[in-house]
Write a structure and sequence with these properties.
By secondary structure, the chain is an alpha+beta fold. It has 3 helices and 7 strands. It has one domain: 3-Layer(aba) Sandwich (Aminopeptidase). Helices cover 30% and strands 40% of the residues.
Length: 143
């Protein structure tokens, strides 16, 4: 099965999450095979120390670590992340959304996600895949 088809099927996987407001955004939590994962939608701080809710960085972690867990559940986890995006974008519409990847396998997976993101969320367009020192940053802009 092609990766894009598999990812599309995974979007339909049943994942339940909790969410809570935090001072700089919204934090989601869900479980896959008894492991907890977090997805944070955080306002980016501007040059003056103020949080800009029109520019959101999305971070993904498990147990406070931003590295690959090696559990073999990446597509189920990815589905949970998508469910969090779905919920967040129902009530929020920031001008910019960014996320980054550092490990080569995540860069590949997030590149696929970037291609699907604008299809799933048509009010956003992919604007840039910026090379960072240790990976890439993916940027989207609301149309």
């Amino acid at each position: 099965m092609r990766l894009n088809n598999y990812i599309n099927e995974v979007f339909d996987t049943e994942i339940k999450f909790t969410k809570r407001k935090i001072s700089w955004g919204i934090e989601y939590e869900f479980e896959v095979n008894k492991k907890k994962y977090n997805v944070d939608f955080e306002a980016i701080m501007d040059d003056y120390g103020n949080f800009d809710e029109n520019a959101i960085i999305v971070t993904f972690d498990t147990f406070g670590m931003w590295r690959i867990t090696g559990t073999g559940n990446e597509f189920q986890v990815f589905s949970g992340v998508i469910k969090c995006f779905d919920d967040y974008l129902k009530t929020n519409s920031p001008k910019y959304i960014v996320f980054d990847a550092h490990e080569p396998s995540r860069v590949k997976l997030y590149s696929k996600f970037a291609n699907l993101f604008s299809k799933r969320y048509p009010k956003y367009k992919f604007i840039e895949k910026e090379k960072l020192h240790t990976g890439y940053m993916f940027k989207f802009e609301r149309k």
